[in-house]
Structures are given as structure tokens and as C-alpha cells.
Amino acid sequence: MNQNISPELAQQLQAALDSTLETTGIAGATVAVINSEGTWYGASGVSNLETEKPLNPEDLFNIGSTSKSFTSATILKLVEEEKLSLQDTLDKWLPDSIIGNIPNAKDISIEQLLNNTSGIFNYTNNQQFGSDQLAIFLDGAELDISREAIIQNYVAGEDSYFAPGESFEYSNTNYLLLGMIIESVAGNSYQNEVNRLILEPLGLDNTYFFGDQIPEKILARSYADLIGQDGILEDTTEVFSSLAFTLADGGILSNSQDVARFSNALFGGELLTPESLNYMLSWANIDESEVEVGDEYGLGIYEEQTPWGEIWGHDGGAAGYISKMRYFPETDTTVVVLTNQASASSPSAIDSIFSAVNNTLFGEPKNDITTEEWLDSLNNNFVNDLIDVVDGIDSKADLIALIDDQKRLAELDDDAINTEKFIQLITNPDYADDSTQLQKFLKFGGIVGEESDVMVGDEGDNTLAGEDRNDTLAGGLGNDLIFGQGGDDVLRGDLNNRSSGGSVGGDDTIYGGAGNDRIGGKGGNDTILGEAGNDRIWGDAGDDTIWGGLGNDTLNGGSGNDVFVLKQNQGTDTVIDFQVDLDSIDISGLDVNFADIDITQQGKDAVIAVDGADIAILQNVNVDSLSADNFIRDDSSGLLSFPQPSGDNTISGGAGADQFWIAVAETADAANTITDFTSGEDVIEIAGLGISFADISITQQEDNALIAINGVDLGILQGINANSLTVDNFAFV
Fold first, then answer.
1. Per the confidence metrics, is the pTM higher than 0.85?
2. Could you give the CA distance from residue 309 to residue 464 in angstroms, rounded to a whole number?
3. Half-sphere exposure for 564 (CA within 13 Å, toward CB)
């Protein structure tokens, strides 16, 4: 099924899926693709080996540990609602009966659970756990598999892998605990919170949890050689189904369409605020060699280099069900693959399908070096040992010929590999880097080059994230999200990171991160946050909002009506081009009124200070030209003048008691839409019109309340019943 993707590309994708499934010999697979052109959903194979029922794109799979990304997003949504902090420790939210069985529990933060740096023992690594699950599956054994019992039976008494934050170790226990924390924080079940915060807002109607009533007709059966390793497949659909209460670490069932929709919304900035997504994509400050999943791990997401560029996402596996969710930031593309049979081949069946889809979308990898040059870059002893692993390969020339013959390589029989020698080779710590390169080659069918510190988006709405280094990131055309992270970065919102001027680009959101960054919004109405470091920021064209963050920053708004955000105790920022008649200073973060600000003339510049501390320098601005009208804040306290609402705006107050100004001195030219008005907390402000509550009309328009005066619409309150509004919801000044 395709929407907007060309029929030719849809046909090519289906052919690639069918061909690869036939080559790998597994039962079935579904694939979902979302990119700037549209969507494509495909399926191949069967959902049931016994009945040979064809697999459909809508069929459900257990997505295993890909559930962790849903759990992480739920935690971050609760942070947005100010219900918890990532720095909260376990003892704040979990009972003594749990933390008493976890070493260092009072020193482990929620963030360390999310990025697997807690050091907590992984309960699925306990051999007794595997034995017990087989007993339940084979013999119907009745065992307590509640989360509390899992901690007591498989984690209690086990040593930590390391002290909190010292290293990385993938642990399902981390996410089991996160599920319990979600319930403790929200006073609600894990399922209900994921529904409330993710599934319902995104319209994911085909996503379920273990324990739900699953529609059997759309549930793909799963298969694996689970017993005896004798080549005989068992129907493993019910394996681990008893673990309904763990949920948060691997208990979600979904289809490729819903998972792709989730991925696209997550990385595209629809689901989380930019601040939350910035946290999610902040890779743990751990040596890459210690991260056994991907190259870097963030909050329920990992990053990996491929022949087609950098990707973000997560994998999952559960007794035959295998899942892969991936986002390509430079092309704003999501690819999801779900299979219903585990494979022991190298590459795995799901990796072969993933590579075939990517080759169709992006073209086969074009290696910048020859196979011989690549082998020469590896440890010579490693290459010699690799030659010894494959039967019929007696020299480096033989190995090069095998690697360059893709058909021969794909058809290489498992019997041709000395498994014992191969395992010894890839687990030898002296060959760690070489082993990683080899495994990526086998996984993707191409040489993976060194990670680049330059990322350039395309014409879509890209999300780009750097690392703890000096990155150059350019969003390209479109409304982009750009996160510099650590290092002295060059960040641009437009297509060309070296272009001058500011006439191209979309409405970008850019976070500099730590380091002394150079940031340019280019064209569009951009939001730019320098964060830590002494940054240089250019808003360029458009109505930009600029905040330097920590450090002594240099801010340049460019053309347009720009807002410069000031914060106390974060350094002295220099505004290069403040335009008195166009630009504004936002002092919401200073917690003062205009009367509390000292503005003095120092040479040609106006200096803004609070309590004797310089906050900002406005270059070439005369103090006498400034007034209260140049300063704004987000509430009505003090003596400030508020800018006239222009109308046709969409406003969200977020958490807390908000005041929404929908008219000041005169009516706006169009109604403003308020998305999250909360009766009893928020207030609608109308100033300078000399009216009272009796003078306004409030009517119902579908699900929204419409506020008007004399036939002129002032505001639309989304999701509010008009009859619920009273004079207490308004302030007239």
C-alpha cells in the first residue's frame, strides 16, 4: 500500500521485500516507510505456517525492546508535565521492597535507567529466568511473574555491573523499573499513561499490550528453533506472554504502520518538545566500545552508522518476533521492519530485509575505498584469522574476491564458516574495533566509513543531532530541529552551511548545547537557544526568538521582529543589532519588572543590569530610546506594557497557571487559538477596551468555545465547553 510514493518505487520496494524474504527463507515480514514523498506499507510471506495465511501490513507483532522507546517517550512527557525529574533517584518513587533489592538504588537516577548506565543487573541474564519461562511455556508451570517477583527472584542478590554512571550495560531491569515509576508518578497504569500520552494523540489504534484482548485474526504467529536447536521451528507466539506485567521493557504489540507513525512523530518533533527530544538524543558519555547496542545510546534510543548515513532507533526481539525501527535524520525517512521468525544467519533475516529496502530507497552503498584498502586498514592478525574462519579461503586475495562478489557472499553456507573460530575472533578484546567493522559489513552488506562530523538535511523537515565533538549541522530547506550537543559546533538552519545572507530555510529550532557554538537560523521564524558556552548567534531573516543560554553570548537578530530572551546568572549577552522599533527583550526569566531594571549608557551602548549584575549589552542603542514597550514578559505582574496580539496565532501555555492576552487596547485582526486552556488555573486577559464579562459573547463551535465582542472574534479555546466558562475565567483591565 502506498500513499504519494510513486508506483514505480512502491513496486521496487515490494520486489526487494519479496526477493529477500525468499532468500532468507523466514516465514514473513512487514515493512513501513515514511519519507517526504509519502508512505509505503508492504508485507510478504505468511502469518501462520500451519494455515499459510498471507501476511498483511496491518498484522500485529510483539515489538519486544522497541517498546523501550515508547517507555522513554512516556517518561519525557511526564517530565514535560512537571510530574518528575530525570535526576530523581529511585527511592523517590519506588517502595522499600523494591529498592532494598537493588544495590545503589538511592544513587541511581531516572536518566541512568533510561540510558542504561545504572549498573543494575539484567534479570533476563539470570539463567533461572530462562529456565522458568521455558517451564511455563512447555509445562504450564504456575509461577509468580509479577514485577515484584522478578526483582525478588532474578535481581535480588546479584551484584551491580558497576557504580551508577560509570559505564554502559544494557539491562531490561532498568525499563521494568521505569514502568513502575510511571505508575507511581501518575497514579495510573503503565498502559493508560502510554495511551494518554502517546497512542491517543498520535491515533495509534493498532497498538496493544500483553494482557489486552488481542484480535487473533490480525496477530502474526511467531516461530523459532527454541528447543534443542535441531532445526525444527516451534510456534513461540505464547512464549513470554505470561510476562504481561513487565510491559515497559518489552510488552507492546503493534504493526509496522503504527511503529513507523510513532517514529516519525518522535523524531520529527511532533510528540515531544524540542527540549525533551534534545535530552533523548543526548548520547550517554560512555566509550563507544562499551555500548553493545548501536554506536551510542541515548534515552531509549540508539545511534548507529550505516553505509546510508547515521540512523536512530531501537531493535526488539522476543522468541521469534524481531523488530527494527529506524530514522534517517539527513533524509527525514523512517523505516520499520517486523518479522515473525528468528534467524541465526549472518546477516540476520531482518538485517537483510532492512538493507534491501535501504538499497531501494537510497541506492547501494558507494564505498570511498576499495575492499583491499579496507582490509589494509584492519589489524593484519585479525585479517589472517578471518581467512582461517572461512573454508576455501586461503589468502587475502581469496577474501577480497569473496567480499566483492555479493551474490557469492549472500549464498555462503553456514557450514562454510568455522563457528567456534568466528566467535573467538569477534569476541577477542584485542580486535574490538576490527570486529565492529566486520560485523557492520556483514550486517549491512557494505563498508561503513568513519562517522562524519558534518550532517546536511534535505528539503524535508529534518531533525539533526551532533555529538560531543565539533560538528557542522545544516538543516536544509524545511522546518528543522537541530541539536549541537557537546563541542564547538557550526549550526545552520538553511540548505548550505556556508551560504551567506538569510533568504532560504524554514522555521527552525536550534539548540547549541555545550561548547562555543556558531549558530545561524537563516530564513524563517527561528527559535535559537545557545545553551552552555560563549556562543555567536545569528537569527538572520524572519521573526526570531534568540536565547544565548549560559555564557557570554553574541546575538544578532537580523531582519524581522526578533525577541531576545534574557536569563539571570547566565552571563552577559551582547545584542549586535537591536532595532528599537521592531525587536523586543523578553525578561520573563529575570523575575523582575521593568522598574527593577537598570539601563545605563556606556559609550555607544545601552547596558541592562539587574541587582548590579550586567545581563545584556545592546550595541549602538541610546538609553533614551528604550521604554517599557521594548520589554515583554509572560504574565501581567508589574508595570509592563504588553504587545498588541496580532491575531491568528496558536498559543499553548503548558504546565502551570497561565494568562492569555487576547486583546490589548484594541481588538486583534483575527482570533487567537488557545490549545490548552485549563479552567480553574488559566485566565483570559482583555485589557484597555473598557468592557466587562457582560459585554462578551461565548458560543460553542463544534468542540471549541468561541469568544467574541461586537461580532469580532477574539479567541478560540480548543476542547472547552462554552457553558463551563464563567466570569472567574476572565480578567478585564
1. no
2. 12
3. 30
